[in-house]
Amino acid sequence: MELSTEKFLVKSSTLLVDTNSMPEFVDITHKVLKTVDETGIKDGMVCVFSRHTTAGVTIQEDEPLLLNDISSMLDRLVPPTIRYGHNDFGIRTVHMEEDECPNGHSHCQHLMIGNSETIPIIGGKLALGKWQKIFVVELDDNKITPREILVQTMGI
């Protein structure tokens, strides 16, 4: 373990990410790289966090057939066509909006994707593997767009 006397910094910013369909994988790797570069942090970590419960953040390979496979898996495991109590507006009483849409499946699929990823920064670069990309995964047809993605960079 190395210790440094340099000043530890924490910098936060918000990326706005437009989405068009579901499920949709939006590669934000270059936006995160630019954000980290602008902080001047050379060694530390960056956390990429979705402020939504129907759009997640994940690291995956940007290979179209694989992304289709993942989309199919999400649809098989949590299909939009089955009953969700969240969608029963006759009995649901909390967190209701006037223009509420049935999106219980989107919330349940989100459990498999997750809200955030943390990536080490080494020498000013993201320590991603050869094929790894950072994606926002849109899971809701009736989404709020643009999606807000927080990027918090910590280090020296």
CATH T-level fold name: Jelly Rolls
Please work out how many helical segments DSSP would assign. 3
CATH superfamily: YjbQ-like
The unreliable regions are: none
Q: What is the β-strand count? A: 8
For the largest sheet, list the strands in their spatial order: 1-8-3-5-6
Indicate the overall shape. elongated
- When the domains are counted, the total is 1
Separation of the first and last Cα atoms: 14 Å
- Give the integer mean of the pLDDT values: 94
The secondary-structure element order is EEHEEHHEEEE
User: In angstroms, what is the radius of gyration?
Assistant: 18 Å
The CATH architecture designation is: Sandwich
CATH class: Mainly Beta
Topology of helices and strands:
Blueprint: E1 9-17, E2 24-27, H1 29-39, E3 44-50, E4 55-61, H2 64-77, H3 104-113, E5 116-122, E6 125-126, E7 132-138, E8 147-155
Antiparallel strand pairs: 1-8, 2-7, 3-5, 3-8, 4-7, 5-6
Could you explain how this protein is built, in words?
The protein has one domain (about 10-80, about 105-155): Sandwich (Jelly Rolls), CATH 2.60.120.460. It has helices spanning about 30-40, 65-75, 105-115, and strands spanning about 10-15, 25, 45-50, 55-60, 115-120, 125, 130-140, 145-155. The protein is built from 3 helices and 8 strands, in the order ββαββααββββ. It has a 5-stranded antiparallel β-sheet with strand order 1-8-3-5-6, covered by helices on one side. Helices cover about 20% and strands about 35% of the residues. The protein is elongated, with a radius of gyration of 18 Å. β5 and β6 (about 125) form a beta hairpin. The chain has about 160 residues and is an alpha+beta fold.
